[in-house]
């Protein structure tokens, strides 16, 4: 699964990474950007994504997909906590996701994410990233939903997940899942129109473990009364009970 991630880079780094041709005024459109060391899906944050609708600019969408067919705000509030992720194996079948994956796909920038390993009855947090420490893209889907009581338009997204590669299977050793990370050369193709079912599924594969790294971090990430949006949340911590290699 993927409920927590990081985008701990500057606005300029993000713009340079995606080489977007349409201008983006952070102050006007999104407010001042600060690096996000810890983002929780359960807080339903607005985060930068790149959609197939506007592939040459950043847009801020809310994490937690609200399907277009939702009837009322109460239903929207209930369902979005269950749609932070969409499973690759069922995304083309589930009513919440099947239209979005066919028509509304997006890139979700990140430079790392968090997962927990179960060991002898205790959970240990890990920070996971690419070996070259660059920004990468989760495969995402997005939706638009209009609140029938106010007319307000909500634009939301979900991150796709797939079976874990060997690295993530060792860490996320209960459900053995991982987010779909798109190879850089496939990012634009994911946004292309008219993809067949076979083509869509071809993107939803485990990212190579050989290109990823992970290490154990401290318990700050689970300290609800502390500020977790800080560099210290990513600091390595060694747990002797886990042995060598953590």
UniProtKB/TrEMBL annotation:
Gene3D superfamilies: SOS response associated peptidase-like (3.90.1680.10)
Domain of life: Bacteria
Example GO biological process: protein-DNA covalent cross-linking repair
Keywords for this protein: Covalent protein-DNA linkage, DNA damage, DNA-binding, Hydrolase, Lyase, Protease
Catalytic class of the enzyme: hydrolase
GO MF annotations, alphabetized: lyase activity; peptidase activity; single-stranded DNA binding
Entry's EC annotation: 3.4.-.-
Family stated for the protein in its record: Belongs to the SOS response-associated peptidase family.
Name of the protein this chain belongs to: Abasic site processing protein
Species per Swiss-Prot/TrEMBL record: Capillibacterium thermochitinicola
């Amino acid at each position: 699964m993927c409920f927590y991630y990081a985008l701990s880079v500057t606005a300029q780094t993000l713009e340079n990474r995606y080489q977007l041709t349409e201008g983006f005024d952070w102050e006007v459109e999104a407010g001042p950007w600060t690096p996000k060391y810890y983002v929780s899906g359960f807080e339903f944050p607005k985060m930068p994504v790149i959609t197939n609708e506007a592939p040459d600019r950043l847009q801020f969408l809310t994490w937690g997909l609200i399907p277009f067919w939702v009837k009322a705000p109460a239903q929207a509030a209930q369902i979005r906590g269950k749609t932070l992720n969409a499973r690759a194996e069922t995304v083309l079948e589930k009513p919440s996701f099947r239209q979005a994956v066919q028509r509304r796909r997006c890139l979700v920038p990140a430079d790392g994410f968090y997962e927990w390993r179960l060991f002898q009855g205790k959970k240990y947090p890990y920070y996971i990233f690419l070996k070259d420490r660059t920004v990468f893209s989760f495969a995402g889907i997005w939706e638009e939903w209009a609140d029938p009581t106010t007319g307000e338009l909500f634009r939301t997204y979900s991150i796709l997940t797939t079976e874990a590669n060997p690295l993530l299977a060792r860490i996320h050793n209960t459900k053995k899942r991982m987010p779909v990370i798109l190879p850089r050369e496939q990012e634009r193709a994911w946004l292309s129109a008219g993809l067949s079912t076979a083509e869509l599924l071809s993107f939803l594969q485990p990212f190579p473990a050989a290109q990823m790294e992970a290490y154990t971090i401290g318990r700050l990430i689970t300290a609800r009364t502390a500020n977790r949006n800080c560099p210290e949340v990513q600091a390595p911590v060694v747990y002797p009970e886990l042995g060598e290699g953590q």
